[in-house]
Design brief:
five-stranded mixed β-sheet, elongated, alpha+beta, 7 helices, 12 strands, 315 residues, Immunoglobulin-like
Amino acid sequence: MHSAMVTAGPRAHHIAELMTLFTGIAAVVYLIVIGVLVWALLRRRARTRFDDEAGRQAADRKAQRVIAAATALTVIILITLGLADFFVQRSLFTPPKDPLRVLVTGHQYWWEIEYDDPEPSQRLRTANELHIPTGRPVELVLTSRDVIHSFWLPSITGKKDLIPGHTNTEVLVAQAPGLYTGQCAEFCGLQHAKMRLVLHADAPADFEHWRQQQLQPGREPATDEERRGRSVFTSASCVLCHSVQGTDASATVGPDLTHLASRGMIAAGTLPNTPGNLAAWITAPHRLKPGVQMPATALPPDDLGALTRYLASLQ
């Protein structure tokens, strides 16, 4: 779902209601103005000019009353809209109780996601797919490594900028399990349109199962080809940017690949996560996503096949 009007969280619901109120009042005001304009034009054609002073004064007084009424109505409308905006803003910025804390960092052009925890062994990192439990507030701590990005999950919450050197916070609450899509809403470069995000709103038990699975080290290869693929991964340029827990790869420039195969998409929502797309992404990322920061990696066909099978096994 990718619509600000189809809401699945209280914050998005409040924003949608406020937008409906503003749009409805603006539409009514527009229709009234157009109606008065048409009435004035028709009346001006039909009436004759006043020849006496008394008639002109009566017309002036009537016009003054109309202007005064219109001014008062305008003030009332603006005050109403201002109060509605104030109360919605206050509800959006109420600090949550017992939130799950998640650190979100924007990169050109992907999302780094880290689940905060006082115990270092319970912290986990992933990319581009955010899992949260339903019914529990989630506090996002937002920042950027390069340029200004904007986090937006329209069905769940509003937009919030990610600014280099600063942190912003945003709160998510998902009311029911589901899959929701998001987008960077601030032009951040050539591939801004392909900086997508997927939110998985899981039942609490399902979220805890997912979290425990993500805390595990990288899956050990089960076949000779997968073992060869791991060897290719650790000896090629992949280790300069990526990490797989349980191996020597520990770089943090690019996404953590420890559980890559558990994600539905790669390249921040650009491609379905299949072995064929993985191979294409490794060898020619700029052909699929021009301007991406990931360099192309040339490998012999056998090594490429083994590498993609290894990556596809990382559940």
